[in-house]
Amino acid sequence: MELLVCIKQVPDDTVNVTMGADGAPKLDDIAPVVNAFDTYALEMAARFKEANGGSVTVLTIGGEGAVPALRSCLSVGADRACRVEEASVCDPQGTAYLLSQASKKAGEQPFDVIFCGSESTDAASGQVGAQLAETLGLPVITNVLALEPKDGGISAKQETEDGYRVVEAACPCVVTIVKPDYEPRYPSIKSKMAARKMPVAVLTAADAQADASKFGPEAAKVQRAAISAPPQRQSGVKIQEKEAAEAVRRAMEIMVGQKLI
How far apart are CA 30 and CA 7, in angstroms? Predict the structure, then answer.
């Protein structure tokens, strides 16, 4: 099968983000990384390829700064990489539209399964995968934990609020991936060296035959109204009584004073 994995660069979520004087997050000193859920999607696609044959292409939207992320993906299982050269800031629908157009040009053959992370760790809208499927007119299975081929299509283990269920879809289709039971693989020195020599294809919006009225700030149907840091947690109260009974009495006094009981 021909597999496509859509990835996004996000600020490293292991780094504490602070707010600048202008009220915006200070991200200049935070190295971008591949979105965590997208790494799960790539690992699942790579394992699917290794078990069933085919190839994996990774696709992203961004400038030259996105190339290291794509090469990272090439070092851990992807066979080809492509980026859409576009600097416009898009809402989820605009992003899905650009990816849908680029997906028609990014591979040597039409893709059978398109993988997306269930959400990004920066915006966390969780909408791009479903909107990508809608734009392409394809079936979609969300919150996928495991995947295998079945009768020319796929069978997926889907996470739900109540547990799990098995869902089947015909190919081509879109799947969005949550964290599976395994971690993404690490690249070897050999695979890193090989990835440096692999080409990264570049598409412009014009190459993808994308309608400029359907993406970018002016086409956005969702806009950020405000952003703020979470409130600081207040320091707790330490009860340092030596006797247990006295400590309990003091705790009850505090809770009554705060109208917690």
Answer: 18
Inter-residue contact 175 to 113 (CB < 8 Å): yes
Q: Evaluate whether 58 touches 82 at the Cβ level (below 8 Å).
A: yes
Query: What distances in angstroms separate CA 36 from CA 105, 118, 119, 132, 136, one per listed residue?
Result: 26, 10, 9, 19, 25
Residue 71 and residue 198 in contact, taking contact as beta carbons nearer than 8 Å: yes
- φ/ψ region of 48 (left if φ > 0, alpha if ψ in -120 to 50, else beta) reads alpha
Between helix 92-103 and helix 128-136 the angle, nearest 10°, is: 50
Considering only the top CATH level, what class is 2-219?
A: alpha beta
Quote the CA–CA distance of 45 and 143 in Å, as a whole number: 15
Three-state helix/strand/coil letters over the chain:
CEEEEECCEEECCCCCCCECCCCCECCCCCCEEECHHHHHHHHHHHHHHHHHCCEEEEEEECCHHHHHHHHHHHCCCCCEEEEEECCCCCCHHHHHHHHHHHHCCCCCCCCCEEEEECCCCCCCCCCHHHHHHHHHCCCEEEEEEEEEEECCEEEEEEEECCEEEEEEECCCEEEEECCCCCCCCCCCHHHHHHHHHCCCEEEECCCCCCCHHHCCHHHCCCCCCCCCCCCCCCCCCCCCCCCHHHHHHHHHHHHHHCCCC
Strands 9-11, 32-34: pairing is antiparallel
Predicted confidence (pLDDT) per residue in 54-90, tens digit: 999 999 999 999 999 999 999 999 999 999 999 888 9
Give the per-residue pLDDT at 233.
78
Cα(261)–Cα(259) distance, integer angstroms: 5
Q: What would the mean pLDDT of 224-251 be, rounded to a whole number?
A: 84
